[in-house]
Amino acid sequence: MKTLAIAMLCHSINAAYCRSLGDDTQPSWDDAPDWQRNSAIAGVEMHLANPDATPEQSHESWYAQKQAEGWKYGDVKDVENKLHPCFLPYDELPQEQKAKDYLFRETVHLMKHLPDIEEYLALVDEVKNLRQKQQSNVSIMASQPSLGKATGIPVQYVGKKSQYTDRLYGSNLVFGRGQVRNVPSDIASKLLNHPEFQHYEQHLVDTPVNDWAEILHKDDTQTILDQAQIEQNEKLDEENRTMDEIEIVNRMDKKSLLDYAQTKYDQKLDGRNNVGALREHVVGLINQFGVV
């Protein structure tokens, strides 16, 4: 299946390249005759079996196949009489024809590591089933007030890193390899969409309900989340202050800009510059040193 898919792609790229040279004789894959399809498939199989084969060897393989089928050289391709303008030794080919062999080879090696369509669909089903199971676990936990609301959902990091910090969702939670944290359901549902995390069911089975209060007391997850929220709010406030200050600067005249830079940043700007240049300089100071 993969060989056929690569052959189809190689044929389509070759047809597009031919059209760029003014040659409109190349049919689409669906309209191509069997001999042309088989030729492309044979070329793909050659490169897969011989990964170090050069573009020249690719042409030689094609040439040998055409020779065995009775093709000859002709100025114009004539399928009925088996004449082809590329039926020449590689060294005698025009450079634009040699390029076809480079394109063909690179396409094969680019596509060969992609999964076969059947393997890909199987992988998609596996991931889909895993996510459905994880989402089901999240829903079950969220529906249990005594556990889900009090302690969050037990999420375990099973990735390969010795330490993982969540930056994607802004929680700043740090997981050691194998560590379990009781995470609020909204963040847990996001983390569990990634294969590096799993719902820690064993944690629920082995831990008596009376011990959840002690676990919650020792778990610093909520503390980290609260701190992350504070930092996020502070960052947002700082960005808003910066934007407000820049808006004020953009309304200043030349003298005000010179005074602003001197007073706020102890910077003496060149008064010979125009207002636009001075504003740009002052905005640069704000972005570099912050609002003072």
Can you tell me about this structure?
By secondary structure, the chain is mainly α. The chain has helices spanning 2-20, 34-49, 55-68, 95-111, 117-142, 145-151, 185-191, 201-206, 212-218, 221-249, 254-265, 275-289, and strands at residues 72-73, 83-84, 153-157, 163-165, 174-176, 180-183, 197-199. It folds into 3 domains: 2-114; 119-219, Ribosomal Protein L9, domain 1 (3-Layer(aba) Sandwich); 226-289. Helices cover 60% and strands 8% of the residues. The strands form 3 sheets. A 3-stranded antiparallel sheet has the order 6-3-7. A hairpin with an 8-residue loop joins strand 4 and strand 5. The model is unreliable at 144-150 (pLDDT under 50).
Reconstruct the topology from this structure:
Elements lengths: L1 H19 L13 H16 L5 H14 L3 E2 L9 E2 L10 H17 L5 H26 L2 H7 L1 E5 L5 E3 L8 E3 L3 E4 L1 H7 L5 E3 L1 H6 L5 H7 L2 H29 L4 H12 L9 H15 L3
Parallel strand pairs: 1-2
Antiparallel strand pairs: 3-6, 3-7, 4-5
